[in-house]
Amino acid sequence: MTQRPLPPFSAIRAFEAAARHLSFKSAAEELCVTPSAISHQVKTLEEHLGQPVFVRAANKLALTRAGEAYAEALTGILGDLVAATGRATAGAKAGPFRVQATAAFNARWLVPRLERCPLRGALSVTTAAGAPDTDFSRNEADLIVHWLDSPIPGCHVLPMLKTVRYPVASPEVAARIEAPQDLLKEPLLRDQELDCWAEWFRAAGVVASEDSLGGEFNANCDINLAAAERGQGVSLAWDAIARATLEEGRLVRLFDIETEPVVIYSVAYPEARADDPRIAAMRDWLLHESLEDGTSADPVRVEAAQ
């Protein structure tokens, strides 16, 4: 790589401070050096540029036209450098990176892939009693995995997981089920919010009224999956959430029939912290993982950002 013909950084710092103060003495006090050291560094810069940057007369210091233009450019460059340095060191100075999500997401999606998370050493994961609290002034989170994709005032909300549902059961229960209509003889484990059993039965061509479904309503899908693992009924699982459990053999998928895909999780964080490098790293990892799984809610956007 060709080296760029830049002046020494010590000369740049000395000049920038002297240009702000229009005083070698004040610049020296700021940088904890002597006025003669500032004068020497400025001379080095002038030799590098091939022209003077200050006019010195009657104990007064003034910028030349070239010096004024150079100082103005340096102000922006050094400001960007300070900001970049702050971003680069934020992870080392900060405490735990706090993520809040639902029980099902944490236990069945996040934990199986935590070893790939770029922030795993700093990650502090909390489980919301229901859907994660969207008020960042009180939820003590840096980022939340938001239920569904509704807007949150003052926050960026990026749809993440879009997935279908299908019935799952323990191997013992699955062994006695041969056709979709057989499910009507089994205890159906149902969600209090976004229950999709009626939709699934319609897709399966089974006539079943809401009253005939019966079943047990639970607070969230993780409770239903846990109950299904113990042979207590059949759960209608979100594919993106249940895959790891199915791969481990604790649950068995019943039939190839699926509901229409729905966005069930989004990444959300405050707009004011959009430039936080740890938020960006966690956001990008979550979106990339969903893309790799084939469950991304916005694959075109994620691929374009990579």
From TrEMBL:
Domain of life of the organism in this record? Bacteria
Note the coiled coil stretches, chain numbering: none
Could you tell me one molecular function GO term of this UniProt entry? sequence-specific DNA binding
Q: Name one GO biological process term.
A: DNA-templated transcription
Q: Where is the signal peptide?
A: none
Q: In its keyword annotation, does this UniProt entry include DNA-binding?
A: yes
Keywords in alphabetical order, please: DNA-binding, Transcription, Transcription regulation
Give residue ranges for domain HTH lysR-type: 7-64
For the keyword Transcription, the answer is yes
Pfam families membership: HTH_1, LysR_substrate
Q: Which family does it belong to?
A: Belongs to the LysR transcriptional regulatory family.
Task: Supply the name of the protein.
Answer: Gcv operon activator
Q: Which organism is it from?
A: Roseovarius indicus
